[in-house]
Design goal:
The chain is mostly beta strands. The chain has one domain (5-215, 265-304, 340-390, 422-549, 587-624, 660-814): TonB-dependent receptor, beta-barrel domain (Maltoporin, Chain A, Beta Barrel), CATH 2.40.170.20. Helix content is 10%, strand content 49%. The strands form eight sheets. The protein has a 22-stranded antiparallel beta barrel. A hairpin with a 2-residue loop joins strand 14 (267-281) and strand 15 (284-301). It is globular, with a radius of gyration of 28 Å. It starts with a helix and ends with a strand. Residues 1-23 form the signal peptide.
Length: 815
């Protein structure tokens, strides 16, 4: 059989298209007149473009027991660096994000049915919370792995995630799933209902989904070493702890914070979604879809570490006597530290409501020309709370008034802390809003020139209002200022696709964006495909891109963060050191250049392969100086490095500040290789990414791992095997490979080993309507690699599995 352009494109994405969806695609080719592929505005009669695209089907998601979009995407070989997800306990706010190429979560654009999703989380967010998109509504996910600013505008520097929802569906689909870790905890489950019917001359689809994720405590995993913090129950004064006799002695113990901290964070998600399409007349179609998601999530950390500088003039002499200087004088202040176990663990709670409504009209004109107009509105409202927060000001007053109690080393009744107004519940509010109006025209001329032109107007706003106590700096947590701002952008774009011959086709796009904040930006894209035969094609794309500064970057006030850092002076008693982060209203957009060059080859019937070289170069990047690097340079005598982060040459880190600027840079390149084999009852695919280089602000990270940057493994691969035992029974095997990396901690180097996670599953069709699926993730219960400067649990939870072997079961019934 002669290979058509569309079958060759299907072969290139075959690794993630299951047998059912592949067959459906093959049998429906003749019915496809015009489709739109991620990365292009042109409605095409084939799927062939110059850009590399990976397609993940709903069946593939189900087979692997994935219950969230973040879990699906974070295991892709193209993901690197660090992202937020179910195992992000410290500072995640319950959100889930994706990080393509390790270039930053805010450099990956997330679309829903080809249109932007509203930023979502706890307020003034820079990226989409993937929790807002229910898995039950997903038909497939398309991952565009090159820059697409010329097509979609800002944020599409590293690539585009386009989530396609189920539409034109008739019938009822009921699903349920359940999972539990092999250790007997982390029990999770959910259910969904999808119903579609023909109504009023159109098709209406409605859906509901509920899911609940169970908690796991860090200390319940053998691979988690006990924590050791200098903030201890009973408190310390001047670095010494009460000796039980009214005096103080050197501290010889530390506090294990892993017993109160989550390894897997619990959440509850409820989503309702609907879509409606109707042919208004022979040339006009109405499309509408709406979605609502409510997220209730929690994180839990050890009780608040209170850090207060006490005025020695207000302290009883019996407690300060031993702290006198050689000349008999007292220091003006003595540092008091206490792990507030008396109050209980810090419990973070988020409630987010995300709404999205999209309306569109599409129509046909003469001469193979189509038009479309659309309106998309999105809103995200959030309230996040922190229970058992500590009011530092009230605590300091209480210490002066009740010194015998606070310096006794004994526990303090929670009722006393309440009476003293020391315990309070921190409450913060935030939100995001987006409104887009767009219109476009696309068509095909008599000379086979495909074209698309359009205009777009977009408004974005966001705010985050911290608790009044936090804003005043009276909390024992870091001080934080409110954030509030908005911007608008008007855009014009154009795109063409032209076959110059039977073998060669070129495509080009350009876009002009005018921002209310910084001015205008123009981007372009140029691509080509050359077909040597019906089974072998080469492709290439060169493009420019940009990322506009977002609300948080422009209008974010001071926000303190306790980062894991190595103090070269040795003045800091803990590796968690306060860094003040600030924004800048004068930020300019980032600029980028990208290039891909690859080939698609169908070797024989059933055997196909793709290989693509890619490179990205970002300049004028919105970035912060590497604080650790600046500290090291300052320690070595570079005064400019000291001034850059507001520290002294003597190692005074009390006002260390990191301000966003346009001085950053990032370069990365690599090779994606995919091979897929299909024959009779067996399907095998191998998807691999080899990282050639990753450099940020002059520092190379390829092959390294770091608690702040995450992991940049040189080689990552996924192997999938699908074996059909019979028409009703199928077995699956998946392996995820992560090559070992090198790191440095306090001057000492270390290395992680290569890791392979094995997973198996099986699906069985009880009858034509009822299907069950079960499996085991991390079959061999492989522990995460030890990372001494890891961002949590001495590892990188977004890269390595910290949960362990997990069993899952799901069922689906259609009628």
């Amino acid at each position: 059989m002669k290979k058509t352009p569309i079958s060759l494109a299907l072969a290139a994405t075959a690794p993630f298209i299951t047998s059912t969806s592949f067959a459906a695609a093959q049998t429906s080719l003749d019915a496809i007149e015009k489709i739109q592929v991620t990365g292009s505005r042109i409605n095409r009669t084939d799927m062939e473009t110059a850009s590399p695209i990976t397609v993940i089907s709903a069946d593939f998601i189900s087979q692997n027991g994935y219950t969230s979009v973040e879990e699906i995407l974070s295991t892709q070989p193209a993901a690197a660096g660090m992202n937020l997800g179910s195992t992000s306990n410290n500072g995640s706010g319950g959100s889930a994000t994706v990080n393509l190429r390790g270039m930053g979560t805010n450099r990956t654009l997330v679309l829903l049915n080809g249109r932007r999703m509203v930023a979502s989380g706890t307020g003034a967010d820079s990226s989409v919370d993937l929790n807002t998109i229910p898995v039950a509504m997903i038909k497939n996910i398309e991952i565009l792995k090159d820059g697409a600013s010329a097509v979609y505008g800002s944020d599409a520097i590293a690539g585009v995630i386009n989530i396609i929802t189920k539409k034109d569906f008739v019938g009822t689909d009921i699903s349920a799933d359940l999972s539990q870790a092999g250790a007997g905890d982390g029990t999770s489950g959910g259910a969904s209902l999808l119903h579609g019917l023909d109504l009023a001359g159109g098709n209406l689809v409605v859906g509901l989904q509920y899911s609940e994720r169970g908690e796991i405590i860090q200390s319940d995993r053998d691979h988690v070493e006990p924590g050791c913090s200098s903030f201890v129950p009973g408190g310390s004064l001047g670095g010494q702890v009460p000796d039980g006799e009214g005096g103080f002695k050197p501290r010889d113990t530390c506090y294990d914070y892993t017993k109160d901290s989550y390894a897997q964070t619990p959440n509850q998600l409820f989503s309702a979604f609907t879509s409606f399409s109707k042919e208004l007349d022979s040339d006009t179609i109405l499309n509408a879809d709406a979605m609502y998601t409510r997220r209730d999530s929690n994180q839990q950390m050890a009780p608040q570490p209170a850090n207060i500088d006490l005025n020695t003039a207000k302290l009883d002499e019996k407690y300060t006597e031993q702290f006198k200087n050689d000349d008999g004088t007292l220091p003006d202040e003595l540092n008091y530290r206490r792990r507030m176990t008396d109050a209980g663990p810090r419990i973070y709670e988020q409630t987010t409501d995300t709404y999205r409504l999209s309306l569109g009209l599409t129509g046909e004109l003469e001469s193979s020309t189509s038009w479309d107009v659309s309106m998309t509105y999105g809103r995200n409202d959030a309230v996040d709370k922190v229970q058992n927060s500590i009011h530092a000001g009230n605590m300091e007053k209480s210490i002066y008034n009740h010194q015998d109690l606070w310096f006794s080393g004994n526990n303090i009744d929670q009722s006393f802390l309440v009476d003293q107004n020391i315990i309070y519940t921190e409450e913060n509010k935030g939100g995001n809003e987006q409104f887009i109006m767009a219109a476009g025209l696309s068509g095909l001329t008599d000379s086979d020139l495909g074209y698309a032109v359009g205009v777009e107007n977009r408004f974005e706003s966001g705010f985050y209002t911290p608790d009044a106590v936090t804003q005043a700096g009276e909390s024992t947590a870091a001080q934080q200022d409110p954030t509030s701002g908005n911007y608008s952008v008007q855009s014009v774009y154009g795109e063409i696709s032209l076959p110059l011959s039977d073998e060669l086709a070129v495509e080009a796009a350009t876009r002009f964006d005018n921002y209310s904040t910084f001015g205008s930006a123009t981007t372009w894209k140029l691509g080509a495909t050359y077909r040597f035969s019906d089974t072998f094609m080469v492709r290439s794309v060169a493009a420019t891109g940009f990322r506009a500064p977002n609300v948080a970057e422009l209008y974010g006030g001071n926000s303190g963060s306790f980062d894991y850092l190595d103090d070269p002076w040795g003045n800091a008693p803990d590796p968690q050191i306060l860094v003040n982060y600030t924004g800048d209203e004068n930020l300019q957009p980032e600029e980028s250049e990208s290039f891909t060059l690859g080939a698609v080859w169908e070797v024989t019937d059933g055997l196909s392969t793709t290989i693509d070289y890619w490179s990205f170069d970002i300049t004028n990047a919105i970035s912060r100086l590497n604080v650790q690097n600046q500290m090291n340079q300052c320690f070595a005598g570079n005064q400019l490095a000291c001034d850059a982060i507001n520290i002294t040459a003597e190692g005074d880190l009390s006002n260390m500040t990191s301000t966003l600027t346009n001085i950053g840079s990032q370069k990365t390149s690599g090779i994606d290789w995919n091979i897929s084999y299909r024959h009779d009852v067996v399907k095998v695919s191998l998807d691999t990414t080899y990282l050639l280089g990753f450099e940020e602000d002059g520092i190379s990270y390829e092959g390294t791992i770091d608690g702040n940057m995450g992991g940049y493994s040189k080689l990552k691969a996924n192997l999938a095997v699908d074996y059909s035992v019979s028409d009703d029974l199928s077995l699956y095997y998946n392996a995820q490979y992560i090559q070992g990396m090198d790191g440095e901690n306090y001057g000492d180097t270390y290395s992680t080993d290569d890791v392979v996670y094995h997973s198996v599953s099986a699906s069985y069709n009880i009858n034509d309507q009822w299907k069950i699926n079960s499996g085991i993730k991390n079959l061999l219960d492989t522990d995460p690699e030890y990372v001494p400067d890891g961002n949590d649990m001495n590892t990188i939870p977004s890269l390595y599995d910290v949960v362990g072997r997990t069993f899952y079961l799901s069922t689906n019934y259609r009628f």
